[in-house]
Amino acid sequence: MAKILIENVEIVTDGPAYPKKYIGITDQKISYIGTTRPEGYEDAYRIDGTGKLAAAGMVNAHTHIAMCLLRSYGDDMALMDWLQNKVWPAEAGLRDGDCYWGTQLGILEMLKSGTTAFADMYFFEDETARAVSESGLRACLSRGLTGDKYDKEDQRLAENIRLYKDWNGQADGRLTVMLGPHAPYTCSEDYLRLLVEAAEELGCEMHMHLSETRQEVEDCLAQHGKTPIAYADSLGILDRGCLIAHGVWATDEELDLMAAKHARVAHNPQSNLKLASGIAPVQKMLGKGIVVGLGTDGATSNNNLDMLEETRLAAMLHKGVTYDPLCIPAATAWEMATLQGARCLGYDRVGKVEEGWLADLVLYDMNKPYWYPRHDRMSLLVYAASASDADTVLVNGKVLLEKGEAKTLDEEKIYAEAGAIAARLTKK
Length: 428
Known about the structure:
The chain is an alpha/beta fold. Helices cover 37% and strands 21% of the residues. It is built from 15 helices and 18 strands. Strands 1, 2, 3, 4, 5, 15, 16, 17 and 18 form a nine-stranded mixed sheet that branches. Strands 6, 7, 8, 9 and 10 form a five-stranded parallel sheet that branches. A four-stranded parallel sheet has the order 11-12-13-14. A hairpin with a 2-residue loop joins β17 (398-402) and β18 (405-406). α2 packs across α3 and α12 (330-337) crosses α14 (377-383). The radius of gyration is 21 Å and the shape is globular. It starts with a strand and ends with a helix. The mean pLDDT is 97.
């Protein structure tokens, strides 16, 4: 059995005393946590945790990872103008292999900033799956689906079904798959009915953009007589198990519906602010028991995959809009970034540093000025730390980053390949 022993480390949830502890890992799971050196780890691979803070890896609950290729291309635009005149024309030029390197770039960024899992919706997802499998990260993938008719021969749907059959549960269980209807404004009612039927046949869940903008809500009301989340529910999407990206304009009635149907929400505060989409009613969602994770969205609308930044913003933004300094405290924001995010993706025993849980861990280097004085490690992590403090990262009990060095990725090759592809897509 492969064993790892992390020595003399502090754990973020151990306040206020923060005793030095040992974390033992056997194969994929945390097998020991305690203040005394455990027996049976004499031959384990040892990691010195002195001066470091152990925490669960963050979960990016919604992104379009290969959109890293279009980072900084088409900023400061309205959502539909940005999509129709910048993003979609560039994406039309994607070729085989492009999304593999775009995914590698995104994985490298997430790994170096303490993210160990993500939910993706994009194209060429077989390439994304291969990149994830090779890298060691955990991911829930869906092929972005758009269509205007009920067509069982639809090529996009066929790709998502093949992705599910080929990759769901693969890579030591690190890969899972959902169906990915893009949004009410890119999928006709007939097409969405087709996708619900396919999800039922496969036994899989769905990941969909819903109620992201005010315009989307107005258009959905005009066309279907229902707000987007209610409309999706009327077609059976929430009954399949649904990860809702955004939910910014969810009504009180929809929040009750989401709670009753156990829909989960990926809150993307930075993307929503940059695109002027609005601010999701997260306090109300949490109050109703809705699972809310955090996401970055794509790196074209953010413009990075820094989940620690999202965590800090989630903690601060909702204090500002509710005028309540007790709204979304640091520990709640951190739980949204870890445990709640894992639940968004359907993961079991991911998102905590506890015995018996999967060893998706990050060690943060606290030897930085902003980590002093150390009154409250949780507060320091959420309100003061930098994502670059992620020193060591493990996923499924395997070391993927150590002392800032990626173990499974070729950084220089990733930069060269991604740069060449981006230049071709944007014709620069």
